[in-house]
Known about the structure:
The chain has helices at about 1-15, 20-40, 50-65, 85-95, 120-135, 135-140, 195-200, 205-230, 260-265, 270-275, 285-290, 345-350; strands at about 120, 145, 150-155, 180-185, 185-195, 250, 280, 300, 310, 315-320, 340-345, 350-365, 365-370, 375-380, 385-395, 405-409. By secondary structure, it is an alpha+beta fold. Helix 1 (about 1-15) packs antiparallel against helix 2 and helix 5 (about 120-135) crosses helix 8 (about 205-230).
Amino acid sequence: MDEIMTSIKELRKTLDGKLDSYLTKEKAEKIIEDVVNKLHPTQSKAVLPAGEAEVLEKFAKFCSSGRNKPEAPWTSQYGSKFGNMKNFLLAAKNKHSILNDFKAVIAEGAAGATGGGYLVPTEFSSQVIRIMNETSPIMQIANIIPMSSWKRQIPKQMTNLQVGWVAENGIKGISNPTFGQIEQTAKVLATVIKCTDELIRDSAINLTQFLSELVAEAMALEVERVALTGRVSAGDPFNGILSTSGAKEVSMAGSGVNFDDIANLIFSLSEAEGRNGVIVLSRTGLTKLMKLKDSNGNYIWSPPSLGNPATIWNTPYVVSSQIPNTVTSASALTGGDSTIAFFGRFNKHLLISPREDMTVKVSQDAASWNTDGSNLESAFMMDQTWLRFTQALSIDVTFGNAFSYLIFK
Protein backbone atom coordinates (compact mmCIF):
# COMPACT_ATOMS: atom_id res chain seq x y z
CA MET A 1 0.00 0.00 0.00
CA ASP A 2 2.90 2.41 0.74
CA GLU A 3 4.18 1.80 -2.80
CA ILE A 4 0.76 2.66 -4.23
CA MET A 5 0.40 5.82 -2.14
CA THR A 6 3.86 6.99 -3.25
CA SER A 7 2.85 6.51 -6.89
CA ILE A 8 -0.43 8.39 -6.30
CA LYS A 9 1.35 11.34 -4.68
CA GLU A 10 3.82 11.48 -7.55
CA LEU A 11 0.95 11.30 -10.04
CA ARG A 12 -1.00 14.16 -8.50
CA LYS A 13 2.12 16.29 -8.16
CA THR A 14 2.71 15.76 -11.87
CA LEU A 15 -0.92 16.46 -12.81
CA ASP A 16 -1.06 19.60 -10.65
CA GLY A 17 2.20 20.87 -12.14
CA LYS A 18 3.06 21.87 -15.68
CA LEU A 19 1.78 19.51 -18.37
CA ASP A 20 3.17 21.49 -21.28
CA SER A 21 6.08 19.22 -22.12
CA TYR A 22 5.66 15.90 -23.87
CA LEU A 23 7.83 14.12 -21.32
CA THR A 24 5.73 15.34 -18.40
CA LYS A 25 2.54 14.05 -20.01
CA GLU A 26 4.22 10.76 -20.74
CA LYS A 27 5.36 10.52 -17.14
CA ALA A 28 1.82 11.12 -15.88
CA GLU A 29 0.43 8.39 -18.12
CA LYS A 30 3.09 5.96 -16.96
CA ILE A 31 2.36 6.67 -13.29
CA ILE A 32 -1.39 6.22 -13.86
CA GLU A 33 -0.79 2.88 -15.56
CA ASP A 34 1.47 1.84 -12.68
CA VAL A 35 -1.19 2.68 -10.07
CA VAL A 36 -3.95 0.86 -12.00
CA ASN A 37 -1.74 -2.21 -12.44
CA LYS A 38 -1.03 -2.37 -8.70
CA LEU A 39 -4.63 -1.82 -7.61
CA HIS A 40 -6.33 -3.84 -10.34
CA PRO A 41 -4.08 -6.58 -11.78
CA THR A 42 -5.02 -7.49 -15.31
CA GLN A 43 -7.47 -10.37 -15.55
CA SER A 44 -6.62 -13.03 -18.09
CA LYS A 45 -9.10 -13.32 -20.92
CA ALA A 46 -11.54 -16.20 -21.02
CA VAL A 47 -9.35 -18.32 -23.27
CA LEU A 48 -8.61 -21.89 -22.31
CA PRO A 49 -5.32 -23.59 -23.17
CA ALA A 50 -5.47 -24.50 -26.84
CA GLY A 51 -3.72 -27.82 -26.49
CA GLU A 52 -1.83 -30.29 -24.37
CA ALA A 53 1.36 -28.19 -24.19
CA GLU A 54 -0.47 -25.12 -22.89
CA VAL A 55 -2.30 -27.21 -20.28
CA LEU A 56 1.03 -28.55 -19.03
CA GLU A 57 2.43 -25.02 -18.96
CA LYS A 58 -0.47 -23.86 -16.81
CA PHE A 59 -0.01 -26.93 -14.64
CA ALA A 60 3.64 -26.02 -14.04
CA LYS A 61 2.59 -22.54 -12.92
CA PHE A 62 -0.15 -24.05 -10.76
CA CYS A 63 2.36 -26.28 -8.95
CA SER A 64 4.82 -23.45 -8.33
CA SER A 65 2.09 -21.14 -7.02
CA GLY A 66 1.56 -23.18 -3.86
CA ARG A 67 -2.10 -23.93 -4.65
CA ASN A 68 -1.34 -27.59 -5.36
CA LYS A 69 -2.15 -28.73 -1.85
CA PRO A 70 -3.26 -32.29 -0.98
CA GLU A 71 -6.82 -32.90 -2.11
CA ALA A 72 -9.39 -33.52 0.61
CA PRO A 73 -11.39 -36.76 0.10
CA TRP A 74 -14.85 -36.26 -1.34
CA THR A 75 -17.58 -36.92 1.21
CA SER A 76 -20.89 -36.42 -0.63
CA GLN A 77 -22.94 -39.54 -1.27
CA TYR A 78 -22.05 -39.44 -4.97
CA GLY A 79 -18.48 -38.17 -4.60
CA SER A 80 -17.54 -40.76 -1.99
CA LYS A 81 -17.89 -43.46 -4.67
CA PHE A 82 -14.69 -42.09 -6.24
CA GLY A 83 -12.88 -40.28 -3.45
CA ASN A 84 -11.27 -37.65 -5.66
CA MET A 85 -11.24 -36.07 -9.13
CA LYS A 86 -8.63 -38.42 -10.55
CA ASN A 87 -10.71 -41.53 -9.81
CA PHE A 88 -13.88 -39.85 -11.10
CA LEU A 89 -12.29 -38.90 -14.44
CA LEU A 90 -10.74 -42.34 -14.86
CA ALA A 91 -14.16 -43.90 -14.24
CA ALA A 92 -15.71 -41.54 -16.80
CA LYS A 93 -12.95 -42.23 -19.33
CA ASN A 94 -13.40 -45.98 -18.95
CA LYS A 95 -17.23 -45.70 -18.87
CA HIS A 96 -17.33 -47.56 -15.57
CA SER A 97 -20.69 -49.09 -14.67
CA ILE A 98 -20.66 -47.17 -11.38
CA LEU A 99 -21.58 -44.08 -13.42
CA ASN A 100 -24.63 -45.57 -15.13
CA ASP A 101 -27.01 -43.91 -12.70
CA PHE A 102 -25.37 -40.51 -13.12
CA LYS A 103 -25.55 -39.94 -16.85
CA ALA A 104 -26.50 -36.44 -17.87
CA VAL A 105 -29.76 -36.39 -19.78
CA ILE A 106 -30.91 -34.02 -22.48
CA ALA A 107 -33.40 -31.84 -20.66
CA GLU A 108 -35.71 -29.07 -21.80
CA GLY A 109 -33.66 -25.99 -22.58
CA ALA A 110 -30.39 -27.88 -22.67
CA ALA A 111 -30.08 -27.66 -26.47
CA GLY A 112 -28.60 -31.15 -26.46
CA ALA A 113 -25.33 -29.90 -24.96
CA THR A 114 -25.34 -32.09 -21.87
CA GLY A 115 -26.15 -35.38 -23.52
CA GLY A 116 -23.54 -38.11 -23.25
CA GLY A 117 -21.73 -36.84 -20.20
CA TYR A 118 -21.89 -37.48 -16.47
CA LEU A 119 -22.97 -35.33 -13.56
CA VAL A 120 -19.92 -34.16 -11.62
CA PRO A 121 -19.92 -34.60 -7.83
CA THR A 122 -20.95 -31.54 -5.84
CA GLU A 123 -17.42 -31.11 -4.50
CA PHE A 124 -16.21 -30.10 -7.97
CA SER A 125 -19.21 -28.06 -9.11
CA SER A 126 -19.25 -26.14 -5.81
CA GLN A 127 -15.55 -25.38 -6.23
CA VAL A 128 -16.16 -24.06 -9.76
CA ILE A 129 -18.98 -21.77 -8.62
CA ARG A 130 -16.87 -20.49 -5.73
CA ILE A 131 -13.92 -19.68 -7.99
CA MET A 132 -16.24 -18.08 -10.56
CA ASN A 133 -17.46 -15.72 -7.86
CA GLU A 134 -13.89 -14.93 -6.81
CA THR A 135 -12.66 -14.49 -10.39
CA SER A 136 -15.31 -12.14 -11.71
CA PRO A 137 -15.88 -8.76 -10.04
CA ILE A 138 -19.32 -8.70 -11.65
CA MET A 139 -20.35 -11.97 -10.03
CA GLN A 140 -19.17 -10.51 -6.71
CA ILE A 141 -21.64 -7.61 -6.97
CA ALA A 142 -24.48 -9.39 -8.83
CA ASN A 143 -27.50 -11.15 -7.33
CA ILE A 144 -26.59 -14.87 -7.44
CA ILE A 145 -29.60 -17.18 -7.08
CA PRO A 146 -29.07 -20.81 -8.23
CA MET A 147 -31.74 -22.59 -10.26
CA SER A 148 -32.96 -26.10 -9.47
CA SER A 149 -34.75 -26.55 -12.82
CA TRP A 150 -34.24 -25.54 -16.44
CA LYS A 151 -37.04 -22.95 -16.32
CA ARG A 152 -38.67 -20.80 -13.68
CA GLN A 153 -40.61 -17.54 -13.45
CA ILE A 154 -39.68 -14.64 -11.18
CA PRO A 155 -41.27 -11.20 -10.72
CA LYS A 156 -39.87 -8.33 -12.79
CA GLN A 157 -40.38 -4.78 -11.54
CA MET A 158 -41.68 -2.48 -14.28
CA THR A 159 -42.70 0.76 -12.47
CA ASN A 160 -42.13 2.30 -9.07
CA LEU A 161 -44.74 3.31 -6.49
CA GLN A 162 -45.78 7.00 -6.63
CA VAL A 163 -47.27 9.25 -3.93
CA GLY A 164 -49.04 12.61 -4.09
CA TRP A 165 -50.73 15.29 -1.95
CA VAL A 166 -54.51 15.46 -1.74
CA ALA A 167 -56.89 18.11 -0.44
CA GLU A 168 -58.82 17.62 2.78
CA ASN A 169 -61.59 15.11 2.15
CA GLY A 170 -60.20 14.71 -1.34
CA ILE A 171 -60.00 11.46 -3.20
CA LYS A 172 -56.76 9.69 -2.59
CA GLY A 173 -55.05 8.51 -5.71
CA ILE A 174 -54.01 4.90 -5.97
CA SER A 175 -50.64 4.16 -7.49
CA ASN A 176 -49.33 0.65 -7.36
CA PRO A 177 -46.01 -0.53 -8.74
CA THR A 178 -46.46 -2.88 -11.65
CA PHE A 179 -44.67 -6.15 -12.06
CA GLY A 180 -44.17 -8.48 -14.95
CA GLN A 181 -42.69 -11.95 -15.11
CA ILE A 182 -39.27 -13.03 -16.23
CA GLU A 183 -39.13 -16.58 -17.42
CA GLN A 184 -35.60 -17.67 -16.70
CA THR A 185 -34.39 -20.32 -19.09
CA ALA A 186 -30.98 -21.79 -18.41
CA LYS A 187 -28.58 -21.93 -21.34
CA VAL A 188 -25.55 -24.18 -21.52
CA LEU A 189 -22.05 -22.75 -21.24
CA ALA A 190 -19.35 -25.21 -22.27
CA THR A 191 -15.58 -25.40 -22.25
CA VAL A 192 -13.13 -28.05 -23.44
CA ILE A 193 -9.76 -28.88 -21.88
CA LYS A 194 -7.26 -30.97 -23.82
CA CYS A 195 -4.79 -32.85 -21.61
CA THR A 196 -2.71 -35.99 -21.33
CA ASP A 197 -3.48 -39.29 -19.65
CA GLU A 198 -0.41 -38.75 -17.48
CA LEU A 199 -1.87 -35.56 -16.06
CA ILE A 200 -5.12 -37.32 -15.13
CA ARG A 201 -3.31 -40.25 -13.54
CA ASP A 202 -0.77 -38.10 -11.65
CA SER A 203 -1.53 -38.72 -7.98
CA ALA A 204 0.57 -35.73 -6.95
CA ILE A 205 -1.75 -33.14 -8.51
CA ASN A 206 -4.85 -31.71 -6.89
CA LEU A 207 -7.03 -32.20 -9.97
CA THR A 208 -10.12 -30.73 -8.35
CA GLN A 209 -8.35 -27.43 -7.73
CA PHE A 210 -6.42 -27.34 -11.02
CA LEU A 211 -9.31 -28.19 -13.33
CA SER A 212 -11.84 -26.08 -11.42
CA GLU A 213 -9.57 -23.05 -11.83
CA LEU A 214 -9.36 -23.56 -15.60
CA VAL A 215 -13.10 -24.11 -15.96
CA ALA A 216 -14.15 -21.36 -13.56
CA GLU A 217 -11.97 -18.63 -15.05
CA ALA A 218 -13.20 -19.19 -18.60
CA MET A 219 -16.85 -19.45 -17.55
CA ALA A 220 -16.78 -16.52 -15.13
CA LEU A 221 -15.34 -14.05 -17.61
CA GLU A 222 -17.76 -15.14 -20.34
CA VAL A 223 -20.68 -14.69 -17.92
CA GLU A 224 -19.28 -11.25 -17.09
CA ARG A 225 -19.09 -10.26 -20.75
CA VAL A 226 -22.66 -11.32 -21.51
CA ALA A 227 -24.04 -9.74 -18.31
CA LEU A 228 -22.62 -6.36 -19.33
CA THR A 229 -22.62 -6.21 -23.13
CA GLY A 230 -24.36 -9.37 -24.38
CA ARG A 231 -26.80 -9.04 -27.28
CA VAL A 232 -29.21 -11.72 -28.42
CA SER A 233 -29.22 -10.04 -31.86
CA ALA A 234 -25.48 -10.74 -32.10
CA GLY A 235 -25.82 -14.41 -31.16
CA ASP A 236 -25.46 -14.18 -27.39
CA PRO A 237 -27.92 -16.23 -25.30
CA PHE A 238 -28.98 -13.24 -23.15
CA ASN A 239 -29.19 -9.47 -23.36
CA GLY A 240 -26.78 -7.73 -21.03
CA ILE A 241 -27.30 -4.35 -19.38
CA LEU A 242 -26.21 -2.48 -22.51
CA SER A 243 -29.04 -4.04 -24.54
CA THR A 244 -31.76 -4.07 -21.87
CA SER A 245 -34.80 -1.91 -22.38
CA GLY A 246 -34.94 0.96 -19.89
CA ALA A 247 -31.20 1.24 -19.26
CA LYS A 248 -30.37 4.94 -19.59
CA GLU A 249 -27.65 6.11 -21.95
CA VAL A 250 -25.94 9.27 -20.71
CA SER A 251 -24.58 11.53 -23.44
CA MET A 252 -21.07 12.89 -23.12
CA ALA A 253 -21.13 16.70 -23.07
CA GLY A 254 -17.82 17.41 -24.80
CA SER A 255 -15.11 15.74 -26.84
CA GLY A 256 -13.57 14.12 -23.77
CA VAL A 257 -15.00 12.77 -20.54
CA ASN A 258 -15.20 15.25 -17.67
CA PHE A 259 -16.58 15.48 -14.14
CA ASP A 260 -20.04 16.56 -15.31
CA ASP A 261 -20.35 13.38 -17.36
CA ILE A 262 -19.68 11.21 -14.30
CA ALA A 263 -22.11 13.25 -12.20
CA ASN A 264 -24.76 12.81 -14.91
CA LEU A 265 -24.09 9.07 -14.99
CA ILE A 266 -24.72 8.75 -11.27
CA PHE A 267 -27.65 11.18 -11.02
CA SER A 268 -29.43 9.86 -14.09
CA LEU A 269 -30.97 7.27 -11.76
CA SER A 270 -33.53 8.03 -9.09
CA GLU A 271 -32.35 8.27 -5.50
CA ALA A 272 -33.90 4.90 -4.73
CA GLU A 273 -32.20 3.14 -7.63
CA GLY A 274 -28.90 4.99 -7.24
CA ARG A 275 -28.57 4.10 -3.56
CA ASN A 276 -25.91 1.40 -3.10
CA GLY A 277 -25.08 1.69 -6.79
CA VAL A 278 -21.70 0.63 -8.18
CA ILE A 279 -19.71 1.93 -11.15
CA VAL A 280 -18.31 -0.73 -13.48
CA LEU A 281 -15.70 0.30 -16.02
CA SER A 282 -12.67 -0.89 -17.94
CA ARG A 283 -9.04 -0.30 -17.02
CA THR A 284 -8.86 2.17 -19.89
CA GLY A 285 -11.85 4.02 -18.47
CA LEU A 286 -10.32 4.15 -15.01
CA THR A 287 -7.08 5.65 -16.29
CA LYS A 288 -9.10 8.49 -17.83
CA LEU A 289 -11.11 9.17 -14.67
CA MET A 290 -8.07 9.21 -12.39
CA LYS A 291 -7.06 12.55 -13.94
CA LEU A 292 -10.41 14.31 -13.46
CA LYS A 293 -11.34 16.87 -10.78
CA ASP A 294 -14.75 17.96 -9.48
CA SER A 295 -16.04 21.54 -9.50
CA ASN A 296 -14.10 22.25 -6.29
CA GLY A 297 -10.79 21.12 -7.76
CA ASN A 298 -10.70 17.76 -5.95
CA TYR A 299 -9.78 14.58 -7.79
CA ILE A 300 -12.88 12.43 -8.22
CA TRP A 301 -10.84 9.23 -7.79
CA SER A 302 -9.94 8.53 -4.17
CA PRO A 303 -7.29 5.94 -3.25
CA PRO A 304 -8.03 3.14 -0.76
CA SER A 305 -7.55 4.09 2.88
CA LEU A 306 -8.10 2.58 6.33
CA GLY A 307 -9.25 -0.70 4.81
CA ASN A 308 -11.81 0.99 2.55
CA PRO A 309 -11.56 0.43 -1.23
CA ALA A 310 -10.84 3.14 -3.77
CA THR A 311 -13.86 5.12 -5.00
CA ILE A 312 -14.91 7.39 -7.85
CA TRP A 313 -16.58 10.48 -6.40
CA ASN A 314 -17.28 8.51 -3.20
CA THR A 315 -18.97 5.77 -5.25
CA PRO A 316 -17.61 2.20 -5.17
CA TYR A 317 -16.39 0.83 -8.47
CA VAL A 318 -15.07 -2.39 -9.98
CA VAL A 319 -12.87 -2.90 -13.02
CA SER A 320 -14.01 -5.42 -15.63
CA SER A 321 -11.67 -6.88 -18.24
CA GLN A 322 -14.71 -7.73 -20.36
CA ILE A 323 -15.72 -4.15 -21.21
CA PRO A 324 -14.44 -3.29 -24.70
CA ASN A 325 -12.05 -0.38 -25.05
CA THR A 326 -13.36 0.37 -28.54
CA VAL A 327 -17.06 1.20 -28.67
CA THR A 328 -18.95 3.50 -31.02
CA SER A 329 -22.52 2.94 -29.78
CA ALA A 330 -24.66 0.65 -27.69
CA SER A 331 -25.31 -1.47 -30.77
CA ALA A 332 -21.75 -1.52 -32.13
CA LEU A 333 -19.05 -2.84 -29.85
CA THR A 334 -16.14 -2.43 -32.26
CA GLY A 335 -14.43 0.57 -33.80
CA GLY A 336 -13.87 4.04 -32.41
CA ASP A 337 -11.76 4.88 -29.38
CA SER A 338 -14.46 4.92 -26.69
CA THR A 339 -15.16 2.74 -23.68
CA ILE A 340 -18.13 2.29 -21.32
CA ALA A 341 -18.88 3.00 -17.68
CA PHE A 342 -21.99 1.39 -16.13
CA PHE A 343 -23.76 2.46 -12.93
CA GLY A 344 -26.57 0.77 -11.06
CA ARG A 345 -27.91 -1.67 -8.47
CA PHE A 346 -26.10 -4.79 -9.57
CA ASN A 347 -26.73 -6.58 -6.28
CA LYS A 348 -30.48 -6.31 -6.78
CA HIS A 349 -31.28 -6.17 -10.48
CA LEU A 350 -28.55 -8.20 -12.21
CA LEU A 351 -29.54 -11.81 -11.67
CA ILE A 352 -27.05 -14.60 -12.41
CA SER A 353 -28.53 -18.04 -11.79
CA PRO A 354 -26.38 -21.16 -12.21
CA ARG A 355 -28.34 -24.38 -12.55
CA GLU A 356 -27.24 -26.82 -9.90
CA ASP A 357 -26.04 -29.58 -12.24
CA MET A 358 -22.62 -29.44 -13.91
CA THR A 359 -21.60 -32.23 -16.26
CA VAL A 360 -18.44 -33.57 -17.85
CA LYS A 361 -17.79 -35.75 -20.86
CA VAL A 362 -14.40 -37.45 -21.20
CA SER A 363 -13.28 -38.51 -24.68
CA GLN A 364 -10.18 -39.87 -26.39
CA ASP A 365 -11.96 -39.94 -29.76
CA ALA A 366 -13.07 -36.31 -30.08
CA ALA A 367 -11.86 -34.09 -32.91
CA SER A 368 -12.23 -30.44 -33.92
CA TRP A 369 -10.99 -28.03 -36.55
CA ASN A 370 -8.40 -25.48 -35.48
CA THR A 371 -9.27 -21.77 -35.38
CA ASP A 372 -8.61 -21.06 -39.07
CA GLY A 373 -10.28 -24.29 -40.22
CA SER A 374 -7.16 -25.58 -41.95
CA ASN A 375 -6.38 -28.58 -39.78
CA LEU A 376 -8.41 -31.22 -37.95
CA GLU A 377 -7.15 -31.89 -34.42
CA SER A 378 -7.87 -35.38 -33.12
CA ALA A 379 -7.59 -36.55 -29.53
CA PHE A 380 -7.21 -40.12 -30.78
CA MET A 381 -4.39 -39.31 -33.19
CA MET A 382 -2.54 -37.09 -30.69
CA ASP A 383 -2.89 -39.40 -27.64
CA GLN A 384 -4.91 -36.81 -25.77
CA THR A 385 -7.87 -36.90 -23.41
CA TRP A 386 -10.42 -34.12 -23.88
CA LEU A 387 -12.66 -32.99 -21.05
CA ARG A 388 -15.84 -31.10 -21.90
CA PHE A 389 -17.44 -29.34 -18.92
CA THR A 390 -20.91 -27.82 -19.21
CA GLN A 391 -22.76 -25.55 -16.80
CA ALA A 392 -26.30 -24.34 -17.40
CA LEU A 393 -27.21 -20.86 -16.14
CA SER A 394 -29.38 -17.84 -16.79
CA ILE A 395 -28.43 -14.14 -16.88
CA ASP A 396 -31.26 -11.64 -16.48
CA VAL A 397 -31.57 -7.89 -15.90
CA THR A 398 -34.76 -7.62 -13.84
CA PHE A 399 -35.17 -3.81 -14.03
CA GLY A 400 -33.48 -1.89 -16.83
CA ASN A 401 -34.28 1.49 -15.24
CA ALA A 402 -31.95 0.60 -12.37
CA PHE A 403 -28.93 1.05 -14.67
CA SER A 404 -27.30 3.82 -16.65
CA TYR A 405 -24.24 3.83 -18.87
CA LEU A 406 -21.86 6.34 -20.39
CA ILE A 407 -19.90 5.77 -23.59
CA PHE A 408 -16.95 8.12 -23.38
CA LYS A 409 -13.58 9.04 -24.80
